[in-house]
Every structure is written in structure tokens, then in C-alpha cells.
Specification:
Two copies of one chain form a homodimer.
Chain A: H1 9-29, H2 36-42, H3 47-51, H4 57-81, H5 86-101, H6 107-110, H7 120-146, H8 155-167, H9 181-196, H10 201-206, E1 207-211
Chain lengths: ~210, ~210
């Protein structure tokens, strides 16, 4: 009998801290200009201490991206699959994804561009997971379109535009500013859905437009 | 009497070519890893030939950003200032900005992040011009809000979200793909305005909602 060890809470928190801090430094200095030593120093660890968790810079980059996709899966994809109504699912995806992006100045999200720096096997794995997420978003809109609930927009443009609104957040959102993460996430979802969704047919059937001359 | 020389058309085209090619290489390799020699080679010029146009790598970076802001001014800001109706102005700004971003894989736009790499004086000049553009976009939405024509959205979130939709374009738009630049720009504008604009009061006055039990 194999005993599956429970994931250690402290270890998970340490992983998040290492990934976020490393992502911030790589973002500031660039991947090539950042050494494992720089990252260890920022974490208040020795280089040897950091090597206890990761085997090198490339492995760290893969770990950061894996961490990012794990967050998307656990906090966006899994809850979304439980939501039957496509409009509610779309709203939930946008709000939950935006919420993740507001953390740690979006450092982990921002690092997505570095996916090309990964060795082929790692890159493929991450890109496959990104694709699954993209498809969830696109399929949700396709479902709305099929039900006549989407405005007349191209699905590709719509999907990438929603992602653009979310992924631009790290460029301007400041923790502790006038707008908190909750408010910003909700506003983005409202604006996106406002541009995408037609009034529900049920509601439209009960209302009629009368032109008054 | 001073005779103002007309800008030479060929020189302007050469400037655009140098800026776009340089931006693409810097984007691919990173600013630090790119040499003036790399850029000259990509342009089919000698290093000496390129130095005829620019005095060095930092000057080139400033020139690329100046070129980018010149495009925004000439093709977005100037025409927008001629449009009295705020909704039409907003639509024009989005379509025209998106159109610029679809050129040369958005290399010039993408380089905006490197603004921090500029010496202080150049950085200030570019950031001031970016601010003017940002304010035009925000003020246009503020005008719509004051007229009761904007949905209930925060102006900061709305402005950055529109920019996010536009500036994400280089990540996915491919020249010669299924969707051309014109179509994509129009779709983005339609989606953004759909999420932002209330029906015009004039139209709303002529229509009445009647609930049919």
C-alpha cells in the first residue's frame, strides 16, 4: 500500500513565495541577466538553500510557469467546469483570472513571454495547458453564440480581447490603490460581458420595443 | 526668411523601416543582447551606414519610441480632435490605434516596456506624450459619462481595459491570416463600445419598453 503524502502547507507557501519573487526579479532584469544567486539573495536564502528546491535556472523558469498554470487550473478552470450557464461561467472565468493577475504585481503572469526560453519538452507542456485554458474561454463564448446570446463578434477576436483586458492588469493595477482587486476584477467582467452578451431570449421575449413617433 | 524643408518621403520611409526592424530584433533578443551590428545586418546595411542615421543604441531606442508616438499623434490624436461627438471619437481612436498596432507584428508598440531603459530626459519626453494620449482616451470617456452615455464603469478601469484589448493584438494577430487588420480593428471597437456605451438619450426617448405580461 502506497501512502500518498498530503501536500505540506508550508511547502506550498514556500513554492508560491519562491516563484513570485523569482518572477519579479526576472521580469525586472531579464531572464539572461538574472542569476540563481540574485534570486537566492532576494529570498534571503543561500544559493545552496535555493538549490534544495530547484535544480537550476531553467528548472526554475519551468516551475514558475507550472505554478502559474496550477493557479489557473485550481482557481479558474475547475470552478468554471461546475457552472452550467455559459454566461455565469464566462463571468466567473474573467473575475477569477483577473483576481490571480492582481497578485504580486502580476509577475508570474507577466513571465508568460519567457515561455520561448524553456527547453522544448517543458515549453510544449506549458503551451498545451495554456491552450486548454484558451479553449475553455473560447468554447464558453461559442456556446453563447450557438444559443443566440452573443453579440455579432468574431470568437477569436472576442477571446483574445478578453485576455488582453485581463493580462494588461499588471501594467496599471497597484495593490493598496484606490481600486481593490475585487472591484477591478468585477468591473472588467462587467465591461467584457456588456460588449459580448445579448439580453437573454427569455427576457427579450417578455419585452417589446414600441416606437413612439 | 527661413525656408522649412519638406520632409523627404524616402527618408521617412527609411526611418519607418529602421525603427520597425530594430524594434523586432530588440523584441526577439532583448535590448541588452542586441548590438547595433545585429540591427545593421538585418537592414542589409553596414554599421557605418546605420550610424549615418543614428548615433548609438540608446538614441535608436529613443528614436523608435518617438516614431511610435509620432504615428499615434498623426493617425489617432489629430483626427480624433476633429470629431465632435464623443462616441464617434472613441470609436475612431480605438480603430485607428488598433490599425497601427497590427503593423510589423506590433514590434514598435511592444517595445513600450523598454521605456525604462531610456536616459531620464528621453524617458520623460516619451512618458509625457503617452500621458497626453491616455488623457485623450480617458477624457473622451469622461465626456460620455457626463452626458449619461456611459455604462456604470470606472473610468480608469475602462481606459486601461480598452488599451489592453488594443495592445494585446501583437500577441495574436497575424498579417495575411483569416482576419485582416481592418476587420480586427472594427471588431475590437465594436466590442469595447458595446461594453461601454448606453443607447443615446435621443434614441431612448423615441423608444419605450413595454412589459408584456
Amino acid at each position: 500500500m502506497t501512502i500518498q503524502p498530503k501536500p505540506d502547507k508550508r511547502l506550498l507557501a514556500r513554492r508560491a513565495e519562491i516563484c513570485r519573487t523569482a518572477a519579479q526579479i526576472i521580469r525586472e532584469r531579464g531572464y539572461d541577466a538574472t542569476s540563481v544567486n540574485d534570486i537566492a539573495r532576494a529570498l534571503g536564502m543561500t544559493k545552496a538553500g535555493l538549490y534544495h528546491y530547484i535544480s537550476g535556472k531553467e528548472a526554475l523558469l519551468l516551475e514558475i510557469m507550472t505554478f502559474g498554470m496550477d493557479q489557473i487550473d485550481a482557481e479558474v478552470v475547475v470552478p468554471a467546469r461546475e457552472i452550467e450557464d455559459a454566461e455565469e461561467r464566462l463571468r466567473s472565468i474573467i473575475i477569477r483570472h483577473a483576481r490571480i493577475v492582481t497578485r504580486a504585481q502580476g509577475a508570474v503572469t507577466n513571465l508568460t513571454d519567457e515561455v520561448r526560453g524553456l527547453p522544448a519538452a517543458g515549453r510544449k507542456k506549458i503551451e498545451r495547458r495554456m491552450r486548454v485554458y484558451f479553449d475553455l474561454l473560447r468554447d464558453t463564448m461559442a456556446e453563447l453564440k450557438a444559443a443566440g446570446r452573443l453579440q455579432d463578434v468574431d470568437l477569436t477576436v472576442a477571446t483574445f480581447s478578453v485576455l488582453g483586458m485581463i493580462l494588461f492588469l499588471p501594467r496599471w493595477f497597484r495593490q493598496g490603490g484606490r481600486l481593490n482587486a475585487e472591484r477591478v476584477s468585477t468591473e472588467i467582467a462587467r465591461m467584457a460581458l456588456g460588449g459580448l452578451i445579448r439580453p437573454k431570449p427569455a427576457r427579450a421575449r417578455r419585452l417589446q420595443l414600441v416606437k413612439i413617433p
